[in-house]
Amino acid sequence: MVSFHVTDQEQGEWTVLRVSGELDLVTSPVLRQRVHDVVADGRHSLVLDLSEVWFCDSSGVGVLIAARRLLRSCQGTLRLILPAQGAADGSHVNRVLGALGVRRLFDIHPDVTSAVSDDSRPLSA
Predict the structure, then answer these.
(1) 93/118 Cα distance (integer angstroms)
(2) pTM
(3) How many Å separate Cα 19 from the centre of its chain?
(4) Residue 68 above 60 pLDDT?
(5) C-alpha distances in angstroms, 23 versus 51, 52, 53, 78, 120?
(6) What's phi and psi for 63, nearest 5 deg?
(7) Which of 90, 89, 15, 100 is nearest to 59 (CA)?
(8) For 19-35, what is each residue's pLDDT tens digit?
(9) Which of 22, 88, 109, 118 has a Cα at 20 to 30 A from 95?
(10) Residues of 57-92 as b/e, b for ≥16 C-beta within 10 angstroms?
């Protein structure tokens, strides 16, 4: 059985979804639904903390792109947490997004504090 968890937390105007485990064909629908639930509740400032995701396949990347599209459609904001250091020498998701050439689509931060700050600057693509 694959270990996969999504927990949420409010930080000011931001909703932070902390994701851990494998983000793949089996688990990505869970994250997709959680993002839709957040938006349906009227919360349009979302941080996806992916620092504990140790595997991501194309379906996981599809969920991230769909989340970006959904939030943009309602004038919302999506920020990702993809630390350069940590479990397995950096974020697997970061490497996958870079390899696919879609990392530049996302506002990426190293931690929650940076992601929810109004004056924060994203990491460069």
Answers:
(1) 24
(2) 0.89
(3) 8
(4) yes
(5) 12, 10, 7, 18, 27
(6) -65, -40
(7) 100
(8) 999 999 999 999 999 99
(9) 118
(10) eebbbebbeebbebbeeeebebbbbbbeeeeeeebb
